[in-house]
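User: I'm writing a tutorial on reading structure tokens. Could you give me a worked example: one chain, its sequence, then its tokens, then a sentence or two explaining what the tokens reveal?
Assistant: Sure. Here is the example chain.
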Amino acid sequence: MDPEKVEERTTVITVEDTKVIDETKIKFAKVYRPERTKTIQTIDTTGSRRPSISAPKRPEKKRKADKKNVDITEHLLSAEECAAKYNTHINTKKASESKGLTTQQAANVLAETGLNQLSPPKKRHPILKYIDCVLKLFNLLLILAGILDYILLAINFQENFANTYLGAILIGVALLNAFIEFYQEQKSQALLDSFLNMVPAKCMVIRDGKVQQIDAVNLVIGDVVMVRMGDKVPADLFLYQASDLKVDNSPLTGESDPQERGPNNTQKNVFEAENIIFNGTLAVSGEGYGIVVRTGDNTVLGQIAGLTAGETKEDSPLSKEIATFVKIIASIALITAAIFFGIGFPVNNNNVSLTLNFAISVFVAWVPEGLPATVTILLTISAKRMAARNVLVKDLQGVETLGAITLLATDKTGTLTRNQMTVTYIWSCLNLRNVMDKQTMSEKAIQIPGVREILNISTLNSRAKFDRVDVPVSQRQILGDATETGLVRFAGEQFGDLFDTLPDQYPKVFEIPFNSDNKWAMTIHRMKHDNGDLTLYVKGAPERVLKLCDSILTESGSIPLTQEHHNAFQETYSYMAGQGHRVLAFAQVLLDGQEYPADYVFDKNQKNYPMSGMTFVGLASLEDPPKHGVREAIGKCRAAGIRVMMVTGDHPLTAEAIGRKINLMVGETKEMVAKRTGRSVEEVSEDEYNSIVIHGDMIDGLTDDDWDNIFSKDEVIFARTSPKHKLEIVKHAQALRHIVGVTGDGVNDAPALKKADLGIAMNISGSDVSKDAAAMILLDDNFASIIHGIEEGRLIFTNLKKSIMYTITHSMPEVIPNLLYIIVPLPLPLSAILILVIDLGFELFAALTFAWDVPETKEGLMKLPPRKPVTPDSIDRYRRYLHRRERYVQYDESGEEVRPNVFRRMYNKLHELTTTAYWKEKFEKTDDEVLVDLPLLSWAYLEIGIIEAIGCLTAYFVVLWYNGITPYDAVIMQRGASSPTNYFANGPIYARDYLTATGKLLNAEAQHRALGQAQSITYWSVMVMQMFNMFACKTRFSMPIGRYMFSNKWTFAGILGGASLATLIVYCPPFNIPFGTEYHLLPLWWLIPVGFGFIIIAYACLRMKVRQRLNPINFNPEIHGLRMHPTIFTVATTESGHRMA
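And here are its predicted structure tokens:
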């Protein structure tokens, strides 16, 4: 049967047994669950196989003295001792009468310790950033060529005057390339700065015995601060008085549950101390008074930010590959120029100026001057598209990095989930219903028996407050405990306009707030009923509330509690808690009017209120549900071969429950296999399970083998992790050659965000520290936006590769004619200025159009494995490399790697080149796909490049022949191109007349026109054949003919722009002078490059057929168990309730 059909038809998760079920027990309808057995297929079918080679053992690093150790010990002091330590005055009995510091004391401390703010990250000056861009190797090559042109000018000013412009153009192009890159980086940084919170925070402080509001940056150690619900804690505080105070520590720890805080402490660990609240956390309920014990960088928040500052980021995969390609091109260009300078010097009668000019031409021909600008602009266009899809890229290289990631480590709270508790299940009148899924509910939740009472309690027994009341509850900001906020939102949604009138209609006459001793909250309201005027409401921990009750509410009214009811309660409670939900119980008492009249005065001290005999109303479970689209997004990531890990500070059970709802975990853990097979956990072998949940307490004790085992599993969740643990996880993943993406929104995520290959922060919920550490920001906080980014990253890599393949192909028709010019010699087919016009003219137009190429298939990109997949074999290869490199690595006393001097590095490199292992490694077959690989270089330099060079030379000789110059004549005339014959010159020095082999006499003007037309057709031929090559480069998997060729309208705009520029240069007489072209060139000769263009297309088709036969595309295997329907339908629902007898 089709699982999807089963899932559509059934509605609630089952805990039903195959035996006959007792009618008195709570019933759950059946729902389809994916089989969790070893047959589940994951992306990497060999994923459970661990690497066979261990990582090399390196000296253990000695811990350096860290100035940022957490040194808070005040939590072990009494309030009086803490106040005495900081010379401040407090009143522990009546905190509001505390005097705090004097104004003079505060000023003195401020002068000594500085402002209460984090040190901003060091920013490099814009001029230095621009210089960094200029000093990229590609730009240095162009600047070198420009300088050589001016050296030529110094050698012979008259003959080389044109080099004045050529040198300026080359240097100008280098500076322009650098400026484009610099401008884009500055633009992204400016946009990021606009997102950071620039509004100075305020706080309430007691100084000179007066409560006053000051800027939080002016707080000093010893100040007495008052914190109320909704306040952001401005510094690390020691609490000496508090009332029902709860703080949300999720920005620091990732824990979504609010923590109770007060003056009494039983913990030694400062992070668990009940009397310390930390800078950057949020007070979600109650109020408290505290002494400032740490400010600025010395707070825990500042120390985590210090962890971030200490982490270095590696270059992106794209920048490494571009740097490698540039080194290859630079080496070829320099070596070729040097060799042919040596050959050309005697050939040109020891003419230094002429030979150096030729060497520069060869150098310029090899270097694709427009490539840096092309890459930068392509990435910029892609970054703009990503910004339109709510993904802001700070670093342009990050655009492609997102497409290359192999592992995505994501936070849970606020990233995968909404960070908003939501009512999911309600158990009332002995019926369980899922109120979250409104699609299958036949009635409104408020109409379900018993739910109205739960809604009344949620509304009236609440301390939540609103920022405004003139908009619906769903649009309000609610200040309060996350659980209360969830209940209030649910009640507001159900009651509608009636919600705001209830507190006035049923005023509160008595209240006992929630506290850690009772674990329940009680309110009494003036609400009439048949037996009196007052109604008591209780909500709290289920087991505590049940103890207060002796009856239970049913559809027919209140009936005595029995053991069967207790069993049903326990079963329901266990089921809700097992889903990772937070569960609350509700109870009420309709107070007897004779015992409790309307004017009865309740007193906490006398405890003259009921503490038993209550009626149990029901249970409600709340969860922090996954964001819409998260499940499909994670499913698509996994289908794309990307491993997704959850790294959270939450409880392991909660984390796993969420993971199973969102496709992050669908297989069996070791414990599940043991339970299914009836064995102990120790008896289950490693190859029997492929999912694992790791508790943070285990991380510090893990060995390298343990890490290998963890990363060999396809589905991994890390729970109860600290910022340090997150950093460790990233480092160990990178040690396996994973390209790691990390998502997060809290301060605790910042160190890992910075260390990762790609840190992804949240804009709306994210802290400023996390945004600054990240390389990418999700503007809408939607995890699903990452999928768009991955698609865009993979697409831009494909398009960049096609663009580079297209761009460097024209090097051969530029280089080969230049070599023939010096070797044969031939009259120069392409001058250096024309080469520059090719690279920066129509080639730039055409190369940029690849940015708008769409994928060849709709979903093909997201079904391919990452371009650098991590497998046991790839890890073994990398570790062999590390072992080979160990002999060249030195360490200092502290265990840190020492960078050797330049001579030692040169020796190491030369020695490395002589080893067999090095060359074996170089030619070892891998699954990696790099930007510039051998097939691409073969296409550009050995295949299409050669066809284009032949086509250009054919057209060149045909035009010379048309003008009466045979190849033989061309060689003779070139040998006499210098004094005294000066062939091809037409002023200020004029060539002698030349009698060709066919008997035709050519004067200076005819010679000049013939060479001008020959150079024009060579230039024109490169353009025409490159137009055909553009289409030939477009496809990776299919034939370069058909509908896909017309999918990018900008291709034709690029062709039109490039052709217009070429027409201007060749057929507009004023441009003939600087470029050496000739407008009399007949359009008839265009047919030659057009014919070769068709040869290029035919060759590309043949090549594609051969590749498809020899190297077919391998898409990722399908993962069974993934559920790809919308997240909104993730939770099962009940078609109808089942009533107990």
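What the tokens reveal: The mean pLDDT is 83. DSSP finds 38 helices and 30 strands in the chain.
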